[in-house]
Amino acid sequence: MIKRLSLLCVLLSSLAHAQTVYTWVDADGVLHFSDTPGSGAKSITLADLDASAPAPHVESTQKMDAAQPSTTQASSAKETAVEPAQPSSSDQAPAELQLSMASPANDTTIRSNRGLIFIRMESNRKLEVGEQLQLILNGHRYGAPQTGLTWQLKNIDRGTHTLAVQAYRNGKIIASSSPISVHLHRTSIK
C-alpha cells in the first residue's frame, strides 16, 4: 500500500507539468493515473501550475482636473494613490474588560426552597480567545471557569452569601466585579 501511494505521489508530481491526466480502475480495484490514455481511462484536466495570474488593474483614486493637459491626465491615470494601512480591529489590543453584576442586585433577598440562585453578568465587550470567567462564592471558586455570562447555582444553603466574578487570561486575573451580598431564604421542616 505504501509503495502504491509513493508511486502515486511521484507520478502526480511528474504529471504536474502535464495538462491532462488519465485515470482508471483495474480489475483488482486499484486506481491508476497516467499521462498516456489507456483503454477505459477517463481524462482529467489539471490547472497549469506554471501560469501566473494577470496583474490586477487598479484605477486611480486621484481626482482629475478638467484644466489639466491630456498628457498629465494620462500619466496621473496610471498612478495610484496608496493610503497608509490602518490597523485592523484584530491588530489592536482589546479594551480593558469591565464586569458588573446585572442580577441579583446587592443586598437582595432570594426565596428558593431548592436553594437556586441565578446570576447574570454584564461586560463592556465580548471575551477574547483565552479569557474565562470564574464565579466566586463566599470567597471560594465555584464550578469551572466558563465563557458565558450566566450561572445557575443549585442547592445553596440558606443564609447570606457573597458573589463576585473574576476574569482570567493565561492564569492571571484581568478584571473583577464588585462583590455583592445576597440573602437566601429556604423553608425548613421541623
TrEMBL record:
Domain (DUF4124): residue spans on this chain: 8-56
One Pfam family from the record: DUF4124
UniProt region (Disordered), positions on chain: 52-95
Swiss-Prot/TrEMBL keywords: Signal
Extent of Low complexity compositional bias: 66-77
Top-level taxon: Bacteria
InterPro entries: DUF4124
Signal peptide per UniProt: 1-18
Protein's name according to its UniProt entry: Nitrogen regulation protein NR
Organism encoding this protein: Vibrio navarrensis
